[in-house]
Design goal:
Length: about 190
């Protein structure tokens, strides 16, 4: 497992090496258009990261940030199907958290358990929440309705910011990448 590396790549590598996996792994309603990924990469909001083991791509991540040393949003984390259940995701996320430790924290959204299409999807959502919690992510005190999907937000952070500060910075990241009006129409913070 020591041979896991995070390799930061550009758009050409993303298109050549990763994009087909992105299309295969993520359902259409969860994917961002390629043009949006490209524009946020060009604006330097998005980092594209290959997860590499012994020179083989075993997964990938997309990480968004708009403020130097601010919060980051882990937009996508995927391990290729043939490499799942081998601890590659855990090791890659631990490496990412170590590399991004100068930031305020890393934010993720997980589809809310219990609201999936069927029992299998709900079990998958539950496993995802357990995965992030085991690594040290903490559930925040609100739900996030984003593009008609209900998410549970989690944060990995060493600081103790007020949630309103976290929400404002995360919304700023969303707006910078997707546009203010689009986020205003498609993003709701639901206090619980």
């Amino acid at each position: 497992m020591e041979n896991i590396k995070l390799k930061y790549v550009g758009m050409n590598e993303f298109k050549e090496d990763v994009y087909s996996y992105y299309l295969e792994i993520f359902p259409e309603d969860e994917r961002k258009p390629l043009e949006l990924i490209q524009s946020s990469y060009e604006e330097q909001y998005t980092k594209i990261i290959e997860i590499v083991h012994k020179s083989e791509i075993v997964g990938f991540m997309l990480l968004n940030r708009v403020k130097e040393k601010g919060y980051c949003v882990l937009d996508y984390l995927a391990i290729l199907p043939q490499y799942r259940n081998s601890k590659f995701g855990t090791k890659a996320l631990q490496l990412l958290l170590e590399q991004e430790k100068e930031n305020k924290g890393v934010f993720i959204e997980v589809e809310k358990p219990g609201l999936g299409r069927d029992k299998e999807e709900n079990l998958l959502r539950e496993r995802r929440t357990n995965f992030y919690e085991k690594i040290g992510f903490k559930k925040l005190n609100f739900d996030l309705l984003l593009f008609d999907v209900m998410y549970v937000p989690y944060l990995y952070s060493k600081i103790n910011d007020d949630e309103s500060i976290i929400i404002n910075e995360i919304l700023n990241i969303y707006e910078s990448i997707s546009g203010k009006e689009r986020i205003k129409r498609n993003c709701k913070i639901l206090k619980i």
